[in-house]
């Protein structure tokens, strides 16, 4: 095995989310989410998967916790479904919903696995989506209330909290391009959805702390942006893309400002006051990394596609294909050094203001049934790059691979498999893949090295 030795105490984990795994979409008083409604519209889920079953996690969670225990994982990053806990988005709490997470947390603790819940992994309660979702400032206040409710119940046993997952994807795919729930196609008019998620994060951090939670972070996607071509238009296109996907989210959180005035001017309300809330100091910052992005001038001809999403030609940048690297089943290039590049960028940009980092997601879609050697190579490569980044002085405290099991990959349905564990969607049978045994051995040998 060629995974280098990480610092003692480095945390080894796996990630998942509620909509992608739980199923039980209307069991025990859960309300519908915007994603439930969106996925039920004909043609939205490309392979026609019925997303209401998930992987059956709501029913099979004990089996999955046993799999985590078999892996030797230190922590499990799952998400709490907001409409399971507060079905109306505000108002009465659903006790059976909270009870489920209480049982899950107990089960994890009983196996010595730290529960690391994400409070928002995209499943907005439908009534809030119908009232404008993240375009409506009120959603941020409702989120904070809900965060407080969950913490009141679980903070005594949860050692690590994540407010929100990937606000950039929600903004871009959900509100700008309409590929994800709630299916809005507002292009740059989508930016208020970014601001309100950031505000929700800041208010959420405060509500969590007020309810006794500690060790709070967020999971933000980062992609190093590479410039395609050498013209001024290429440079401007790449710079704009970098701004709106990376820094429009990281800067408010970590530096209390928007990356430039043009972006700030497109945001609603009294941005200055909000930025103070948004930049409430965090205990740590989570990075979701999959691949770099090559961007240049807009392309006149028709549409670019990015990760299978169509990019309208009127956007002021154009995404190009990265050539010369192996790709995953999503067509994403496998560039482990991009992880190091991103981490070093974060360190250089924020210096002392940067809290310790965790990799909250990293993984790949490969359809190799259970003999998933490409996944092993992917994770191994990225752990190598991560180790190099640590050697270059970036303070990274842990790594969560995406994902423990195969799951519903949003609009791709079950056709993209990210798991260490295979799911048979007919029987919901779980079968550990070769990568599961490999990751278990990595964790074991890291622990042995740490105590040697
Ligand atoms: C994310 C998504 C995950 C995806 C994963 C692979 O945070 O990007 O939330 O749910 O499944 O990233 O695309």
UniProtKB/TrEMBL annotation:
<dbReference type="InterPro" id="IPR017736">
    <property type="entry name" value="Glyco_hydro_1_beta-glucosidase"/>
</dbReference>
<protein>
    <recommendedName>
        <fullName>Beta-glucosidase</fullName>
        <ecNumber>3.2.1.21</ecNumber>
    </recommendedName>
</protein>
<keyword id="KW-0624">Polysaccharide degradation</keyword>
<dbReference type="InterPro" id="IPR001360">
    <property type="entry name" value="Glyco_hydro_1"/>
</dbReference>
<keyword id="KW-0136">Cellulose degradation</keyword>
<comment type="similarity">
    <text>Belongs to the glycosyl hydrolase 1 family.</text>
</comment>
<keyword id="KW-0119">Carbohydrate metabolism</keyword>
<keyword id="KW-0378">Hydrolase</keyword>
<dbReference type="InterPro" id="IPR017853">
    <property type="entry name" value="GH"/>
</dbReference>
<dbReference type="GO" id="GO:0008422">
    <property type="term" value="F:beta-glucosidase activity"/>
</dbReference>
<dbReference type="Pfam" id="PF00232">
    <property type="entry name" value="Glyco_hydro_1"/>
</dbReference>
<keyword id="KW-0326">Glycosidase</keyword>
<dbReference type="InterPro" id="IPR033132">
    <property type="entry name" value="GH_1_N_CS"/>
</dbReference>
